[in-house]
Amino acid sequence: MNADSVQARTWRLLELLADGEFHSGEALAQQFGLSRASVFNALESVAEYGIELQRIRGRGYRLARPWQRLERDEILRLLGKEATRFDIEVLAQATSSNALLLQRAAANAASGSVLAVELQTAGRGRLGRAWHSGLGNALTFSLLWRFECGLNALSGLSLAVGVAIVRALNEFGAQGVKLKWPNDVLTDQGKLAGVLIEAQGDMLGPSAVVIGIGLNCTLSVQLERQIDQPASALDEVCGNMPSRNQLLAALLRELAAVLQQFAQDGFAALRDEWERYHVHQQKTIQLRMPDGQIVSGIACGVSDSGELCVETAQGLRQFNSGEVGGLR
Which residues bind DNA (predicted)? Predict the structure, then answer.
């Protein structure tokens, strides 16, 4: 049997085990017309997905933590009248939702196309970094949005997306969510979410952007070991923890509103709101430039086009690239 067939069998079994209840090997084998050995083999490698599977003689198999599956029809229902804006597809497994959606964008996929991935095996972050996630403990998706304007008019878009994310999380009572320039979402514990924007088109227009978002819902010990920076999860700061379907619907709704406003008025219309969430606002920072140079100063917010404004010893300067670190 080829690897694709084994993988498909594993996903069918995981979908049945998503309820967190015990299922005997015999019952699973009968339901799918398999041998018990085939069930065992299909579930043998699920630890690679960040899944803790309990096996107890006489009771069968159970996921240590129930898996909330993403369900297209439920997401559309939750979107209500906004559902017509989106064409949503949920994939069980993929390397990178951004990479796939960029290919579809080049083949004229419609604005509002969404790819959500249950298990992303080669997720990408800014500056080529890896984004680590396991099955069911994160929300990883990409949204294609088309603009009449050209690429040169998209300055500040990643910051606008950050505003949409905070708005959506506020709906569920998330506490202490902040934004770090240019595209990180933080809590006091560490990084909660990241944004990767990739664009296609001409400088004068039209243009298309694929907005990739990865957001930690929960953090397992295994996953924390893989992440090379302080990280946080939504369940640590959210008193009214949403399902992943509710979360994706809220994010898409807020993204549509923000992207429509951005298309009309640019980032300037969202600048004040972004600065209210800016974790380094009026604080001393160090900005590491792409060439390794370090710039120190006070973060004074951002410009109408999204550049970071820093009061330095040489005066007020604006930057459109660099890595920000706070000083204690």
Answer: 25-44
